[in-house]
Specification:
By secondary structure, the protein is mostly helical. Helix content is about 75%, strand content about 0%. It has 17 helices and no strands. About 0% of the residues have low confidence.
Length: about 350
């Protein structure tokens, strides 16, 4: 559909609101799920995209993720003490720095098999058990979510992005199979995960009081159910926001050059990267352009909380604010984007 100038202006203002208000307005930050849901409703209304199919999709899509969060919360509630002892044992045997590096690297590299959701659920439960303060906790979550976002794209089961890409490229000329993304992105993802693991090793041990405060997490039935409900609303909001902004993306970014798309894809920080991939990737795309687009999408997805499901799950469980996340993740994301831009130009 062709958008009018007024619709384009309104949608651009909406994007700016999604980017800026959670970082500057306390009410928007405090009620991020409701804020994003409202923005999603506005986006769909501005583009006249309402349909029974969209309503059905927005209600159904969050169910699996919400159930996973709910079941994992109940299981971790039951085995919390066992996990606590295991975490303490691991730190005492191999040391804190090696433990932090192992968490980032292993979750990042296995997320394509166990899925990004499961990796995030494991991460959210392990982190409060480690002897690090709140600042260190936020840093570890951010490093790990960047790693999980990178790793999960390597197969069709890790996250929807990989599924969409392989589906669109299964025919000529790529004939993409299960190992296609691993073959073309594997070394870039492995290198990124190693760098993120090394960064995690710089996180310092907290003193006893800080560590005890950091480990203090609620595992009541009420808190688990409320957390799952927030995740449901969050995912529903992203479905509406993605569909509402899709006409703008099709009209404005789908025809840009490779280099321009690489940096425009920072919109993945607030939009579902699978939506952008569905718009930008066509069967005749070159392998070089494909790698450029995918790396920009998965890196950008770590920069803000709405950018990826693992971010949402961990931020909700650990009560990380938008400001805290952006402070730790945006500078890192910018550096990764620039470095990978140069590396990809040299190596491809």
């Amino acid at each position: 559909m062709e958008l009018s100038v007024l619709q384009i202006v309104l949608l651009c203002l909406l994007i700016l609101s999604v980017l800026i208000l959670p970082l500057t307005v306390h009410k928007a930050e405090e009620n991020l799920e409701a804020f994003l849901f409202t923005c999603g409703v506005i986006a769909v209304s501005v583009t006249n995209m309402w349909s029974w199919e969209l309503i059905k999709t927005s209600l159904q899509d969050p169910i699996k993720i919400t159930l996973a969060v709910l079941v994992a919360g109940l299981l971790f509630k039951q085995f919390h003490r066992t996990l606590q002892r295991a975490a303490a044992k691991t730190v005492s045997v191999i040391g804190l720095r090696a433990t932090l590096a192992a968490i980032v690297f292993l979750l990042g590299m296995t997320s394509s098999v166990i899925t990004a959701i499961i990796a995030a659920l494991i991460l959210a439960e392990i982190i409060p058990l480690l002897p690090i303060d709140r600042k260190g906790r936020v840093q570890l979550v951010v490093y790990s979510c960047f790693a999980v976002g990178m790793g999960a794209v390597l197969t069709s089961i890790g996250e929807p992005l990989g599924t969409i890409v392989l589906s669109k490229l299964k025919g000529a000329p790529h004939y993409a199979d299960f190992w296609f993304l691993l073959k073309h992105l594997g070394w870039f993802v492995l290198t990124g995960n190693i760098v993120l693991a090394v960064l995690a090793m710089r996180i310092k041990r907290a003193d006893n009081a800080q560590a005890q405060d950091a480990r203090c997490e609620e595992h009541t039935l009420t808190s688990i159910v409320v957390r799952a409900a927030k995740v449901y609303l969050f995912v529903m909001a992203l479905v509406l926001l993605g569909d509402g902004l899709k006409p703008l993306a099709v009209q404005t970014i789908a025809h840009l050059s490779e280099n321009a798309l690489y940096f425009i894809n920072t919109l993945s920080a607030i939009l579902d990267n699978a939506t952008l991939a569905a718009i930008e990737i066509t069967p005749d795309i070159s392998t070089r352009n494909l790698v450029f687009l995918l790396m920009s999408l998965i890196i950008s997805g770590g920069m803000l909380i709405p950018g990826n499901i693992p971010n949402i799950i961990c931020a909700s469980k650990l009560q990380i604010t938008s400001k805290e996340w952006a402070k730790a993740a945006v500078p890192l994301g910018v550096v990764l984007m620039v470095v990978y831009f140069g590396v990809l130009h040299i190596s491809l």
